[in-house]
Known about the structure:
The chain is an alpha/beta fold. The protein has helices spanning 3-13, 36-47, 60-74, 91-101, 129-155, 184-188, 196-218, 245-258, 262-271, 301-321; strands at 27-31, 52-57, 81-85, 109-112, 123-124, 127-128, 162-166, 226-231, 283-285.
Amino acid sequence: MGPLLDELHNQFFTRPPVPTADFSGKTIIVTGANVGLGKEAVKHFVKLHAAKVIIAVRSTSKGEAAKAEIERDSKVATNVIDVWPLDYSNYASCKQFAAKVATLDRVDAVVLNAGITTEKFELFEDNESQVTVNVISTVLLALLVLPALRTSAANNRGTTPIISIVGSGVHAYTKFPERKEPGILAACNDPKKARMSDRYQVTKLMSLFAVRSMAEKTANAKPYVIINTVNPGLCYTDLTRSLTGSTGNAMKVMRAAMAWSAEEGSRTLVHATTVGPESHGVFISGSKIPNNGQSKFVTSPEGISTQKKLWAEISEKLEKIQPGITTEL
């Protein structure tokens, strides 16, 4: 089946299995965890006995409210969940967050779940907002926390930490015209050419390419850290709340017809932190490996060429944000 049929089959005829893994003694970080998939994933992690779960949120007041709700519903001790500030729209915030991660005794999994979709063109830092949040800051965070996960692996023998980036099956639904421009990131920054109805899909394809690049460059690194990307499917969440007009109406119809609940979708996030080296660089969809639902373009000759071009641009940008960061790969 192609990506669309895979997605439809998953949504209509399957449900992700309820997680049963034991996270005893482990420290888990989930970004964008005060609502939706992130919050539901945190509920699973604490029920599965994680020693520490860090909720990373832009609004700490909302994070504290989510923490209180989870503690009440899950009857978990008040010292299990911590709330840390993190704003993907601000590179300094990403650096501050990563510096705090480096102080932890251990880090077993980082779920980079935060993301945005919008029809409004605006800049965060110096890129279009969705490019900044869904791509640049996501990759920046992955590389900034990578040393902490390697240290954790070295200090806790027999463990293999995981960085899991939340992707989307919609990466297969864009033709990604920006790839043909001399500079992909520059093309995404042009408000006159921006197709905002397509931008979220574009950023999720860019994110997938970035995951594959990071995985390729860390494949033989020691201590080993798994980097994968997970498709949680179409779920009832607040992600699309800013969409209006025909796009917003179409999303409402699709969600009514086949969306999973946020809890069901969150199971895929938890699953992605329990898999082994076979998931390194893999697009996990429907809690299945390998590459169920991945666009064929990704591994085509043109896709491979596009990935190299994009990674060169992302690397150059990251080096300007944090000199030396790509040497961690």
